[in-house]
């Protein structure tokens, strides 16, 4: 694991010691495992190592593509606390995420669907101007659930979003959706 950090430092013509102050909060959490191979780390530890490697050359902008997908809830929370500290150090961070709770921690959000920008605003502004009722729905059989949602006449649109499916409702009739899914024998979580 330490080899990974040393490699990235040399690629960017720096050393771990030169920028350790930037990564120490993150790296210190995984340092007890510094002799372990990166492939043997847990998902959360891999993400911390990847973030340490990305920061070792003190970038002005950090691009993160779904950095917490597949990471447990505690590690997700820790990861976002680390990002908040990095922002305070003047690093601009661009994050793609399927989790609305994570998007809510950002200063600005671009809402994308099918590769098109639907809206750019603050997280609160996005929610306020959306104007339609949206439900996050989860089931043991997510493929069947998505098909059922798309067939329901009360649903305007349905699509996968992280570990849920989002259902945009017509006229806010979520009570009818629940009844419809019960008739289809779709068990919601």
Report on the architecture of this protein.
- Helices cover 46% and strands 20% of the residues.
- The protein has 2 domains: 2-98, P-loop containing nucleotide triphosphate hydrolases (Rossmann fold, 3-Layer(aba) Sandwich); 132-183.
- The strands form 3 sheets. Strands 5-7-6 form a 3-stranded antiparallel β-sheet, with helices on one face. A two-stranded parallel sheet has the order 1-2. A two-stranded antiparallel sheet has the order 3-4.
- The chain contains 8 helices and 7 strands.
- It is of the alpha+beta class and 189 residues long.
Summarize the structure.
The chain is 46% helix and 20% strand. With 189 residues, the chain is an alpha+beta fold. It is elongated, with a radius of gyration of 21 Å.
SSE topology sketch:
Layout: H1 2-11, H2 16-30, H3 43-55, E1 61-65, H4 73-88, E2 92-96, H5 100-103, E3 109-113, E4 116-121, H6 123-130, E5 134-137, H7 142-151, E6 155-161, E7 164-169, H8 174-183
Parallel strand pairs: 1-2
Antiparallel strand pairs: 3-4, 5-7, 6-7
Helix pairs in contact: 1-3, 2-3
């Amino acid at each position: 694991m330490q080899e990974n950090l040393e490699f990235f430092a040399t690629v960017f013509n720096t050393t771990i010691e030169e920028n350790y102050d930037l990564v120490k909060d993150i790296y210190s959490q995984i340092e007890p495992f510094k002799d372990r191979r990166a492939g043997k780390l847990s998902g959360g530890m891999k993400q911390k190592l990847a973030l340490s490697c990305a920061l070792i050359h003190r970038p002005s902008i950090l691009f993160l593509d779904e950095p917490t997908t597949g990471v447990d809830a505690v590690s997700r929370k820790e990861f976002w606390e680390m990002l908040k500290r990095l922002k305070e150090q003047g690093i601009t961070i661009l994050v793609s995420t399927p989790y609305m709770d994570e998007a809510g921690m950002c200063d600005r959000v671009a809402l994308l669907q099918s590769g098109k920008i639907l809206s750019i605003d603050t997280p609160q502004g996005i929610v306020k101007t959306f104007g339609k009722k949206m439900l996050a729905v989860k089931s043991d059989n997510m493929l069947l659930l998505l098909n059922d949602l798309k067939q329901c006449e009360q649903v305007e649109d349905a699509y996968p979003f992280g570990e849920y499916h989002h259902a945009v409702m017509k006229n806010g009739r979520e009570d009818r959706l629940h009844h419809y899914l019960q008739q289809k024998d779709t068990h919601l979580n």
